[in-house]
Amino acid sequence: MPLPGPTADARTRPAPAAATTGSAGSDITKSCCSTKGDGEIHVGTMHRFKGLEYQRLAVVGVSDGIIPRSGVIERHRVEDPLRYEREQRKARSLLFVAATRARDALTISWHGKPSPYLPI
Prior knowledge:
Shape: elongated
Strand content: 15-25%
CATH architecture: 3-Layer(aba) Sandwich
CATH topology: Rossmann fold
CATH superfamily: P-loop containing nucleotide triphosphate hydrolases
Order of helices and strands: EHEEEHHHE
Strand order of the largest sheet: 1-3-2
Number of domains: 1
Helix content: 25-40%
Number of helices: 4
């Protein structure tokens, strides 16, 4: 089961949980693109999962302020409205691409307030 997160920093957090359940962990790399049911939990950024497909997928960290990254995007709201809109579209598109990597089951998690891109 892959666990795409919004940033490379988020890749390190699920590993202890996987170890306690007896699951094997594996980072997604360019050379590691096997999506066969090998029982491993693949952990990577949402960018890393582009073009891959999994039977079950969990997208973690889909919280307001993280997706979209408000610190990065908000500075453009007044100074460059066109770039602000473009960055909003890119962030929304990235979440969409990550979510569509799931073939049969999708789980999305967040902490605190969910991302404004989630239809909740």
